[in-house]
Amino acid sequence: MQATDIQVKEGTKNYNNYGAWLRQKYNGQRVFKVIIDGGFTCPNRDGSKGYGGCTYCNVDSFTPSVSRKNPSIREQVIQGMERARTGNRADKFIIYFQPNTNTYAPAHYLKMMYDEALSYGNEDIVGLSVGTRPDCIDAEKIALLESYTDRFDVDLEMGMESIYNDTLSQINRGCTHEELINALNLVKNSKLDVCVHTIFGFPWETHDMMLRYADEINRFPQIKFVKFHHLHIVEGSVMGVKYKREPFKVFTLDEYADFLCELLPLVRPDIVIQRLFGLSDRELLIAPNWQLKKSEIQYYIDKRIADRGAIQGSAL
């Protein structure tokens, strides 16, 4: 299918999607995330666990350039909300600390940053979202995040990436799947909304291995949200260098859409799916380049899911 063949449409989806969930929760208001770069690093970048970061990662590939350029939290929040208001007709906002590991600091320092980011929106800020690693979560930091839940919806996003320790080792993750399980146990009865992030398409993982991610996610009732991404190879990453030397198999759009049609029926129906795919800046993307805009990819995948009659949770 060519880009010109695709007409983006709104409608009911066969899965519990985040957009519909937000609209229902906030009475039809348009809620957008404002991405904030807090200047954090990661323990597998600064030497405490390793150097170089995850082999697939170039932080710039998933951080908007406007966030990278703004020097202060205040400017990022104010300008981010204004862009969303003018460009997307946003009504309310979720402050999203996304790049790197956003709990990788003492709790008192984290409080200072979160407080500052949440102080500029008056009634317009409704949520706080914090992306991190499972090995950078402890009871004190959970208590800090929970302290905001009387005023905001707070979600804690942790990178699962893979359920296999061999994969986590190969990508220089610097933590194990058991550490994710430990972190999930810490938030078992928490007020926080927990999101896990996964990546599909590591070349050494088989189709069946990837489908088993659903079983692992399903067994933790504290997981409320998921983000599914396909592996993409970006400039500035260790994996990008290796791919240029010796290319390996990555998903085509058809293959990935078909994979999601198999995966979604295996996923617990109450889980809200925040994303079905990831997309980096085109100037940084090496592969796979599907030659479509984000909205076109979304429609293509949604149409394939509908055409196949794939319904979230239907195989459970």
Can you walk me through this structure?
With 316 residues, the protein is of the alpha/beta class. It has a single domain (3-308), classed as TIM Barrel (Alpha-Beta Barrel), CATH 3.20.20. The protein contains twelve helices and nine strands. It has helices spanning 18-25, 65-69, 73-88, 107-118, 139-146, 165-170, 177-186, 207-211, 213-218, 238-245, 253-263, 294-308; strands spanning 31-36, 92-97, 125-132, 153-161, 193-200, 223-230, 233-234, 272-275, 285-287. Strands 1-2-3-4-5-6-8 form a seven-stranded parallel sheet, with helices on both faces. The protein has a two-stranded antiparallel sheet with strand order 7-9. Helix 4 links the parallel strand 2 and strand 3. Helix 11 (253-263) crosses helix 12. The longest helix has 16 residues, at 73-88. It starts with 17 loop residues before the first helix and ends in an 8-residue tail after the last helix. 38% of the residues are buried.
Return the CATH architecture.
Alpha-Beta Barrel
Q: From the 3D structure, determine the CATH topology.
A: TIM Barrel
Query: From N to C, what is the helix and strand string?
Result: HEHHEHEHEHHEHHEEHHEEH
Strand content: 15-25%
- CATH hierarchy, class: Alpha Beta
Q: Count up the domains.
A: 1
Sequence of strands across the biggest β-sheet: 1-2-3-4-5-6-8
Q: Determine the N-to-C terminus distance.
A: 32 Å
- Helix/strand-derived category reads alpha/beta
Helix-residue proportion: 25-40%
The mean pLDDT is: 91
